[in-house]
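User: Could you check the structure of this?
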Amino acid sequence: MSTTPASVAESPAPRNSRSRVILASLVGTTIEFYDFYVYATAAVLVFPHLFFPTGNETTALLASFATFGAAMLARPVGAIFFGHLGDRLGRKTTLVASLITMGVATFLIGVLPTHSQIGAWAAVLLLLMRLAQGFAIGGEWSGAALVATENAPKGKRAWYGTFPQLGAPLGFIIANMLFFGINIALADPEHPGIASEAFLSWGWRIPFLFSAVMVIVGLWVRLKLVESSAFERTKARGEVTKMPLAVALRDHWRALILGTFAMLATYVLFYLMTSYTLTFGTRMGLDAAEQAAAAAGTEFDASAYVPGLGYAYNDFILMLVFGVVFFGIFTLVSGPLADRFGRRRTLIWVTIAIAAFGFTFVPLLGGGTALVMFFLALGFTLMGLTFGPMGAFLPEMFPTNVRYTGSAIAYNVSSILGAALAPIIAVALWGLADGSPVYVGLYLTGAAVLTLIALILTPETKNIDMDS
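Assistant: Sure, the predicted structure tokens are below.
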């Protein structure tokens, strides 16, 4: 199917009510992103100590981030698997399967033995569960986006498409506030800035185990869905393809490539604003690290240490949550903008702003608390404005019979180029600049330039007929 604009066909009344569509697309992605953020927080706070005790703090952090990024490698595999099911069997069945897979993997992380109990096998098991998480989320997003957009009223597809996107900031807030509360409850009064023994022993497991409750709620909502009329009409016409992946690669390869790079800046910004800023914000400064080592009676190698801003975890997580509120607000704001001005035009202007934002890392992150909070608010505002329209933009690039597969592959291959590498590249660039985030900002600017090129080459999708 060409992505050249065509007349919008009048669609019959949706088979799912507006409230059911919004809730089903929102609840599932909130759970999926909650599970992902729980892991991301633990990758900074817990896993380097419990699963990768290398003796070198930076090496342990990189090993922990490597497992975080490994999930992104599994996401395209999940996109192909769940995309095949979604285009062959329907959206509803696939969404339920992906949610169960994610929930089971996250719950099992909460009961894993650590390195002190089974040695290197702990890291292996953690990696396997992380790959299962990535596999599941590879099929989750596209299904939720299709439920929203294929059931949207005329002229409101981008607005409906923002609700699965809203799951990202909501999942972040729930996950991190739960970690925050547990950390406060189990804090060591003598060392308030350091994770307590109780937290490292069992407290960190609670958010992973809690995911089981959220999954049950999500399943209850999704099992009430009715299959979208767009898919049912494609099925009735006999146009369901036996090999969606082959058709997508053969007939829609250009849309796959452009969609992948259209998401690149979004992903890089996403993970720099969450994983990297949490690491940079909570890493002790050089003087504080030297004093901590002296107090512990251990040798300190200043040449191998990468300093950060030195905020206590609890303080910085509240700052992050403050920023993520802007993420949620502007995710919703982006929908009406994209419906009025078009997805392509909206995203082009936001991407230009992201490229400029890359030059603010040093002056803002290097300043005081007020400047850091302004940096977080600005970055997450741009995150909402670029992430929101993607819920409609990527699905609109593909016809119904390969829409699940095509949008899932573009979305998740981009996760490898952007999200899988972003935390690792950021830590490496951070060390290369002796603790300055200057190169990290330039990395974001470079990603934005690539996204801008892809958007310029992509036709507007606002007026396409999604029943074709």
